[in-house]
Design brief:
four-stranded antiparallel beta sheet; dopa decarboxylase, N-terminal domain; Aspartate Aminotransferase, domain 2; 44% helix; binds pyridoxal-5'-phosphate; alpha/beta; seven-stranded mixed beta sheet; 15 helices; 11 strands; single chain
Length: 473
């Protein structure tokens, strides 16, 4: 390896990244390009010979950069992928260079200690005591999967790991759940037919009486509750279920309580809205994604578990080729014994660096700013008789829709999709559309350090104009 070339190319790359971050606001947020064009652009044979790094940088500038979705752009308010904080970006660079493999202590002693500390910080934020544990994961999907596996194993008396799930069980969750939970009940062998998808109330929180009715109906058929899932920050609206009520019901039913706070966990850093996640510490396991509202670069999810021993009971297999003879007294913490993944990236480094550089207070301020932006957009929609907001936002996610003109629901859905597509093409803003309670909505979520009030006002004015133009077209 030519380290002179590496050094030069590395400096150039870091300069390039700094320029990119400073100039990204001027770029079109989303590339106006056909997928077929991009497919053709990368339709190239496997390179058989070498090429200097500076040439590759030029290629990246030509082929990759012009066609990215710029989540660092202040107009990005879409699917929950934040503008990554710059300290975290450097953390990931170093993590790749060190290539510590956190599955086993022997491939990263200090990295294992750092990762355990980051998990402890997250457990402290939740309010878990010293018995808690956890794993960083690729994201909320994997964290929810692990949460459901822990539930399954616990409720089966740790037999399911050997026998598979025996008997009839069900899992309960609100209709506002993320799809990762459907995939998880499938993956751990409970089956999607046994996921009871229950109605949410007018604030998009699980109806407790619907949960009680579903439990009763299952009881009559001899179906036992395996897990109740609470949502602490729904994907559409940031709605938070009544976690205390869910904890009381789970305790009564002797089943597991898993809470999906993949997105909403960021509220634990808020200084202006304490208590939004009240009761979170009562859950047996919690999903929180630092790569969502802690502004860490992808990927960094987390499953946090009230009783660390449940992780070991669920995953604790030790094969001869992995057994570390030096750790006879368990002083060498082996993540592979206490978690699902074997090889795992050094995800905690970027999270640790983010907290070290900015401090929890600054990250909490970003969260509070995002919440204020959502509240502002909600107000703008409420004040316009031709717009409706689904509910007052508790976090950064708002769903609004155009109600002007005499349109049926199919036409209104078309309006929303076409206006969103027009805005995407123009490259100033990006947000998603969604459906809730039979209606189509613009789903707008500024999990972004750079979005400001002017951006929100400009977005709303654009929506007002384009919705009216669609009707007049
Ligand atoms: C509430 C919730 N849970 C889970 C997930 C899945 O997380 P990931 O995309 O990190 O796998 C998401 C993603 O947006 C989410 O909003």
């Amino acid at each position: 390896m030519d380290y002179t070339e590496f050094r030069e190319a590395g400096h150039r790359m870091v300069d390039f990244i700094a320029d990119y971050l400073q100039q990204v606001q001027e770029k079109p947020l989303f590339p106006d390009v056909e997928p077929a064009f991009l497919h053709a652009l990368f339709d190239e044979p496997l390179p058989s010979g070498p090429r200097p790094l500076h040439e590759i940088q030029t290629l990246l500038e030509e082929k990759l950069l012009p066609y990215c979705t710029h989540v660092n752009h202040r107009g990005y308010m879409g699917l929950i992928t934040p503008s990554p904080n710059p300290a975290g970006i450097l953390g990931d660079l170093l993590a790749s260079a060190l290539n510590q493999n956190l599955g086993a202590y022997s491939i990263g002693p200090s990295a294992v200690a750092m990762e355990r500390r980051v998990i402890r910080w997250l457990n402290d934020l939740i309010g878990y005591d010293a018995h808690a544990g956890g794993n960083l994961s690729s994201g909320g999907m994997t964290a929810n999967f692990i949460g459901l596996k822990l539930a399954r194993d616990h409720v089966s008396g740790d037999r399911a790991q050997h026998e598979g799930l025996q008997g009839r069980y069900a899992v309960y969750v609100s209709e506002e759940r993320h799809v990762s939970l459907d995939k998880s009940v499938d993956a751990v062998g409970i089956g999607r037919d046994n996921l009871r998808v229950l109605p949410a109330d007018e604030h998009y929180r699980l109806r407790i009486e619907a949960l009680e009715a579903a439990l009763e109906a299952d009881r009559r058929q001899g179906i036992r509750p395996l897990c109740i899932i609470g949502l602490a920050g729904t994907t559409n609206l940031g709605a938070v279920d009544d976690l205390k009520a869910l904890a009381a019901i789970a305790a009564r039913e002797q089943c597991w309580l898993h809470v999906d706070a993949a997105y909403g966990g960021g509220m634990l850093l808020s200084q202006q809205h304490p208590g939004v996640l009240e009761g979170l510490h009562l859950a047996d396991s919690v999903t929180i994604d630092p790569h969502k509202w802690f502004y860490a670069p992808l990927d960094a999810g987390a499953i946090l578990v009230k009783d660390h021993d449940r992780l070991t009971a669920s995953f604790g297999m030790q094969h001869a080729y992995l057994t570390d003879q030096s750790g006879q007294k368990n002083e060498r913490y082996q993540f592979y014994v206490h978690g699902f993944e074997q090889s795992r990236r050094f995800r905690s480094l970027k999270v640790w660096m983010s907290f070290q550089h900015y401090g929890a207070a600054q990250i909490g301020e970003w969260v509070d700013r995002n919440v204020a932006l959502a509240a502002h957009l909600h107000q703008l929609a409420v004040q316009d008789p031709e717009f409706e907001s689904a509910t007052e936002p508790v976090m950064s996610a708002v769903c609004i829709r155009y109600t002007g003109a005499d349109l049926d629901e199919e036409q209104r859905a078309q309006l929303h999709h076409e206006v969103a597509a027009r805005i995407e093409r123009e490259g100033q803003f990006w947000f998603a559309s969604t459906a809730m309670k039979g209606k189509t909505w613009f789903r707008i979520n500024p999990v972004n350090i750079y979005t400001d009030t002017d951006t929100i006002i400009a977005l709303f004015e654009t929506l007002q104009r384009y919705c009216r133009e669609w009707v007049m077209r």
